[in-house]
Design a protein that fits this description.
Two copies of one chain form a homodimer. Chain A is an alpha/beta fold. Chain A is built from 16 helices and 16 strands.
Chain lengths: ~525, ~525
């Protein structure tokens, strides 16, 4: 990476695919990771933390492929403070035009206690691992995990060691979401002032939102001298999540008068990637989420509409189009042609080949027959629903469900399982229970349903519904999704989609293998 | 109100029922408002802003009844800067042991332009209206709306006028969510230092979360000398919402070391009221919402479980029980008795009379027959589903739905409409569309479906589903909810629930009346 010589430039380091993806239940498929990485690269994110290569074959492969594909972004992988992790990380990121190794160790008293290292032993370990990383890669980032709860003297000492060993970025994580803005600014300011060598490297801030202050803490760190913000789309992440990329980027734009720093992110790409991350992670964004919530710009709707002041600025500090939120368009009806569909999909960020277009066009026509008006959101849902379908081992062929207040619901499902046609009928408490039971009869499994939710894609009773299903089996979690105007059919397809993903994971892990991935919290 | 003589005490002013309730779609019924007010009072909120009495008969009645019921909280109503609003507000709040009138006017250049008042004319209006309010009530709060975008000199001038006219609380609203922590602290500090009389009154902070910094801005204002935080449960509110009560309360607890102020709020009541507000407003809380999100304390679940460090503190700065989050309990099965049910409901915050218990017990038994394990969440959903049912004009008697991939779905619905039994059959795109069409055939209406969503109440395929439906008709919005193990039945009941609420509103408004409520944004 060419470290910016512009003193007011703040680098955006996105960790949606690493810290975001490790939230329980937010696991993404390989294809989804590549897609999100592509969007991040395209929108001008400076550094993409693509994963934790030692964690599993899947993580390693995803980081490697993202590294190969990246056009402009630095591609970074995470490694604990040991040679094995760092070597594996380098093997994955080295394919990038601009690779980075990010290695870390927990430096607070609570974290030091776990590997049972003395302060001196840990300092020595930091020196060795950062040196090793730097021998492999010019661009090394080091993090003292739980920095905000680490004793000042020790923090300053280990930061200095990491700088001397060759780290070009020092990240100061508020791992537990504990800090407040004044502290956050002071900590960075003091590190820059007092640690020898600090003036030659970039300080990064990595905040969590446990007390609701991640955005303010990140911006305060920048005021204190940090020039890299670590964040995720939609604030995805464990517990209350990480700093939300969309919030820091827009705050720096809107309040440039008092925060005279800038990023390289194209904010008009925010809404699109926000929707994609919400969909693939299965973590919906709440209506009143800043910047990307459904209501974020919606104060003019509803009962106040007539009485609203005409001047939008009176109550609005950003325009919806600044973050890429455009009016939902009636894109086309049943007479629209294939070329028009391809154009529209291109505008929505989907480049499709001829074969894929053929398949999508058929499904688009089916939808246009059932639904008078086809909106952007419908096409996005359509694109999602089709994604993994072709090679899936389990497929729904047809189904019929009867339900109501008169007794148990009954579902008859016909499925293709590895090419074989099977039909079963089951009863259950409601249509969804009956449907899932019939599927389990056809394809016996122990998967536990952790999450089931349905959202209408657009308004109106003929809207498509997007169903998300999260299954857990033997410690593996998979989320499935489907969109259909029939919520019960969408439920069946989402459930089968999740089962297919579990099958892919199990195949990858191999028979008898330990399926548990390594966590960054496993002390190395 | 006895204004606190404890200099470190921060008053919590909750405006869930005023600023929160006016978010498009978050409208609550009279009964829901009373219930939420009761919970706020019980949890130690100092001031409850119960509504905007001039807005409608409904608002007036809600504020009046909340005022009569309040045990400990000050009850406040909102009024624009005119005699009519203030008189009406006083009529409603005067029933409280401790009433407060909150009057305001927009003081920024953009807001001054709308009533087309000169600075002097507006200053005179402020003097008159605050004086009038103070003649009615000892406890008067005044707000310069859009204070953070008001010229300093003018702000200082009008704040002084309001203090001299008798305001005992001056609230400084960041109406558009524009400010940043350092600014927020400085503004309050400067007002206290420079405005004559400032030392004798309480300054309040009222932030919006448009840039994701409402919590940090509120706490910074306290550092600057404010001693009242205006906030809402779950950060409910227009656009990105208001400051979240749960975040400021917990931040002050967790970081008492650097923020040595305290509130009177019992934090262990947070989860219960958060769930209730999410339910009655129809605004779900996202998984990664700080403090109250489903994942806020969930870092130990999922794939990292085995590898997790044993010491919870390592990654946790609060304990789930600090905010009243207890493990989901298997409360009882089908053999549990009525007394046990009443006890359990009491623990969940529902005090039920004998008649209500009888009704709930029947539905509990029905649920226990269908579902092996009945959890706290199931009982909460059950309580919700049963509300309003008795006097509803529209009721579902029975229904049968057939759906699947073989053609259009078909729904046959039997309903009681004002006591008359009607059955109709309709086909549609999926079971929900067919069901809603059949209901519209039975009870013709123009209501537009704005929102449809389904969430499983607990895990497992036999879980109950909670369906939320938001309808809009002639500018009126109503949200309906229902829980059932059958999502299609729950959808029908939620739709009918919303229709019943629209009927209640229409009846209240009366034939031919202008149904639009007055908004605080309507310039008076």
């Amino acid at each position: 990476m060419t470290q910016s010589i512009d003193k007011d430039r703040v680098l955006i380091f996105d960790t949606t695919l690493r810290d975001g993806e490790q939230s329980p239940g937010a696991t993404m498929t390989h294809a989804e990771k590549l897609e999100i990485a592509g969007l991040l690269d395209e929108m001008g994110v400076d550094i993409i933390e693509a994963g934790f290569p030692i964690a599993s074959e899947g993580d390693f492969n995803a980081v490697s492929e993202i590294a190969r594909n990246a056009q402009n972004s630095v591609i970074c992988g995470l490694a604990r403070a040991n040679i094995g992790d760092i070597d594996r990380c380098w093997e994955a990121v080295r394919h990038a035009k601009q690779p980075r190794i990010h290695t870390f160790i927990g430096t607070s008293p609570l974290h030091r206690a776990i590997p049972n290292l003395t302060m001196d032993e840990m300092a020595e370990r930091i020196h060795e691992t950062v040196t090793h990383a730097r021998n492999l890669c010019d661009n090394v980032q080091w993090s003292p995990m739980d920095a905000t709860r680490t004793e000042w003297d020790y923090l300053a000492r280990v930061v200095e060691i990491a700088i001397k060993a060759g780290a070009s970025t020092i990240n100061i994580p508020d791992t537990v979401g504990y800090t407040a803005p004044v502290e956050s600014a002071d900590l960075i300011k003091r590190l820059i002032a007092e640690v020898p060598g600090a003036e030659d490297i970039i300080f990064a801030t990595h905040c969590h939102n446990d007390l609701g202050m991640a955005t303010a803490n990140s911006l305060a760190a920048v005021a204190g001298g940090a020039r890299q913000i670590e964040c995720t789309i939609n604030g995805l992440g464990e517990r209350a999540g990480n700093t939300a990329l969309e919030e820091v980027v827009m705050a720096l734009k809107v309040r440039h008068d008092i925060m005279p720093w800038h990023t390289g992110v194209d904010a008009t790409k925010i809404m699109n990637i926000s929707r994609r991350v919400a969909t693939v992670s299965g973590f919906p964004v709440q209506f009143n989420k800043a910047i990307v919530g459904k209501n974020a710009f919606a104060h003019e709707s509803g009962i106040h509409q007539d009485g609203m002041l005409k001047n939008a600025e009176t109550f609005e500090i950003m325009r919806p189009e600044d973050v890429g939120l455009t009016e939902s368009n009636l894109v086309m009806g049943k007479h629209s042609g294939r070329a028009a569909l391809r154009d529209k999909l291109g505008q929505l960020g989907y480049e499709v080949g001829d074969n894929q277009l053929k398949d999508i066009f058929v499904r688009f026509k089916e939808l246009a027959d059932r639904k008078k008006e086809v909106y952007d959101e419908d096409l996005i849902a359509l694109m999602r629903a089709g994604e993994d379908a072709e090679n899936d081992r389990l497929q729904i062929v047809s189904m019929k469900v009867v339900c109501g207040t008169g007794g148990p619901a009954e579902a008859t499902i016909e499925m293709e399982v590895d090419g074989r046609d099977i039909t079963e009928t089951e009863t259950g408490d409601g249509p969804v229970d009956a449907t899932f039971k019939a599927i389990r009869k056809i394809h016996p499994n122990q998967a536990h349903l952790q999450l089931y939710q349905v959202h209408a894609v657009t308004e109106g009773t003929d809207a498509q519904a997007t169903v998300s299903v999260r299954l857990e089996e033997d410690g593996m979690i998979a989320t499935g999704q489907s969109a259909n105007t029939d919520t019960v059919v969408a439920s069946a397809k989402a459930y089968v989609n999740a089962l297919n993903r579990l099958l892919v994971r199990r195949d990858k892990a191999g028979p008898g293998s330990d399926t548990r991935e390594i966590s960054y919290k496993d002390v190395s």
